[in-house]
C-alpha cells in the first residue's frame, strides 16, 4: 500500500519518450487531413447532410485529437524537470525554435493570404489577424506555444516541487477553465480570443502532457481506452451532423469541446501504447518526425495551391482522395522541402533550428563565488 501511495504522489517511473516521434508524425497527417476537407464540412463545397459532407465529417471528427496531442507532447518535453538548465538557457533555445519561426512564417503567410488568396475573402485585416493570434490557419498554434514557452520556467516549479495530486489538480482546473471558455464562447457568443489570451484555454493540455507522459496502458486498460476514444469520435460525428443550430460542427469540433477532450486524452495514452519504444520503424513514421515542424509550417501552401489545380473536395471520391491520400502526399512533399531547406544555413532558422554560432548564456557562478 505504501508503494501505491508513493506512486500516486510522484507518478510512475520515467519511460522513454521515443514513442512521441511517430506519434507526432501521425498527428501532423491528421492535421493536414483536417485542413484538406475543412471547407467541405464548412459547406463551401458540399451541402450539409450530403454524402460528401458526411464523409468529410467522419474524417474531420476522427482527426480532432491531433492538435491537443501536439500540445501535450510539447508540454511533456518542455516541462521535464530532468532536462535541467536555467530559465535563461531554456528561453534562449526556444527563442530560435519558436519565436523566430513565428515571425518568419507570419511574414510569409500574410502576403500569401493577401494576394494568392484574395479571391477567397474580402476585408481581411492582417493587423487584426495578428492581434487575434491567428494570422493563418495553422499559425495560431505557434502563438499559443510562444506564450506557453514564456510561462514554462514558472510551470516547471510545479513539475519539480509539486506533488502529483497538486499537478493533477492544477491541470484539472486549467482544463475546466478552457472548457468553460469554450462553452461561454459558443453558447453565449462572448470571449473572443486574442494574441494575449489564446493560450489560456489550452494550457491544461500542456500540463497534462507531462503528467500523463509516463503512464503506459496495460491489459484491459487498452481496450477501455480504445472504446472511449471510438465513442468520443462517434458522438462528435453525430453531433456535427445532427446537433442543434445551423452549423453544429463549429462547436463540437473545437479542441475544448467535451468529446474532443475525451478523444485527445484517450488518444494520447493509446499512442503511447501503440508506439512504445521497441525498435520498429512504424511504416517510416519515425523517419518523417525530424521534419514534422517543417510539414506543419508548409502544408497549407500545398493544400490551397494544389487544390486550385486538382479540384476541390466536392464529391465522395474527391473527399476520400483529399482527406485520406493527399495528406500523405503533402507530408512527403513538405518533408522534402524541409530537408532541402535545412541544408541552407540562412533558411534553417525559419524551421526552428538554432544557429551554430548563436550565443549561449553563460552558466551561473557557483554559490559563494565572488
UniProtKB/TrEMBL annotation:
Keyword vocabulary terms for this entry: Acyltransferase, Cell membrane, Membrane, Transferase, Transmembrane, Transmembrane helix
Segments crossing the lipid bilayer: 94-115, 135-154, 166-188, 194-211, 223-243, 255-276, 288-307, 319-342
Residue ranges of every copy of the Acyltransferase domain listed in the record: 19-340
InterPro entries registered for this protein in UniProt: Acyl_transf_3_dom
Membrane topology: Multi-pass membrane protein
One of the record's GO molecular function terms: acyltransferase activity
One Pfam family cited in the UniProt record for this chain: Acyl_transf_3
Keyword Membrane: yes
Major location (coarse): membrane
Keyword Aminoacyl-tRNA synthetase annotated: no
Subcellular location(s) per record: Cell membrane
Family stated for the protein in its record: Belongs to the acyltransferase 3 family.
Protein name: Acyltransferase family protein
Organism: Brevibacterium salitolerans
Source lineage: Bacteria, Bacillati, Actinomycetota, Actinomycetes, Micrococcales
